[in-house]
Amino acid sequence: MAEMKAMEFTDELVLRPAWRPVPEPQAGEILIKVSAAGVTPTEKTWYPTSHHADGTARSKAIPGHEFSGLVAELGAGAIGYRLGDAVFGFNDWFAEGATAEFCITKPSSLSLKPSSLSHTEAASVPIGLLTAWQGLGLRAKLQKGERALIHGGAGAVGLFAVQLAKSQGAHVIATSSKANLDFVRQLGANEVIDYRERRFEEAGAFEVIFDTVGGETLDRSWGLLKNGGRLVTIAANAESSTDPRAKSAFFIVEQDGEQLAALAKLFDSRKLKAFVKAELPMEEADHAYSGSITGKPGKLVIRTREYRP
């Protein structure tokens, strides 16, 4: 049986190299030869990292659920793609992730990779872009001319939220640290607030607020909504909040290949940009998930090795 190299979590949530059988796609599934995988450091604490979908304990999970690569094999009935297609997308949170030479996904979670993006750039996109779109476009229903406040405008989600809100014709105000003020302005924000130096309440009222921070920032934001205003948050502490407003505003991104394909066109038309904080080899995945890599804005990406039989 062919094997692949992967990185798996130990019981101490340290990533170590392992050899696994190359997974076989079942009916309706696609095998991806992974070129690069996006890193979300908080995945170490996610429920699917330590549990299967049925609630039983899980160990040795392979992280990284957004990726870019090539279609390597099609399961029975899997349609929409051909062998060798360059694709990017997601796989299920409870599936083995893409910090490996191969992973399994479904056609409905994929899109053809934008030709203007490298595999590394493409792997930095799916979670952040779809989260921003589903929050702003689908849940908040942001309209042209509305005022939008985006908390964490330089983050992996915020940088796409700023770009999308601006492309929708909104007046965009974002919060950021001092080091990233110019970066967020370049994304298209009309105004950027250094949250350590100025209270964002001074910016006035908004039709839409997109929160990626939570905590006190979320608590202080409710009073800034205009009549009929909409707030959405992805901050994990909102899910467990006793405030019914926070519970209602909280959402988790859903895999959606059709949405990803529509948004992918914005890269090739130069209306969206992807940003990679750093690219690391698979052997350094534990460092990537440590949360210790700082520097320029963007997503950390793991570069996988070429498959060897």
CATH topology tier name of the largest domain? Quinone Oxidoreductase, Chain A, domain 1
Low-pLDDT windows of residues: none
Shape: globular
The beta-strand count equals 14
Helices and strands, in N-to-C order? EEEHEEEEHHEHEHEEHEHHHEHE
Number of domains: 2
Pairing-aware structural class of the strands and helices?
alpha/beta
Named CATH architecture of the largest domain = Alpha-Beta Complex
Task: Please give the count of helices.
Answer: 10
CATH superfamily of the largest domain: Medium-chain alcohol dehydrogenases, catalytic domain
Q: Mind summarizing the main beta sheet?
A: 7 strands, mixed
Euclidean distance between termini CA atoms: 9 Å
* Assigned CATH class of the largest domain: Alpha Beta
Summarize the structure.
With 309 residues, the protein is an alpha/beta fold.
Features:
five-stranded parallel beta sheet, Rossmann fold, Quinone Oxidoreductase, Chain A, domain 1, alpha/beta
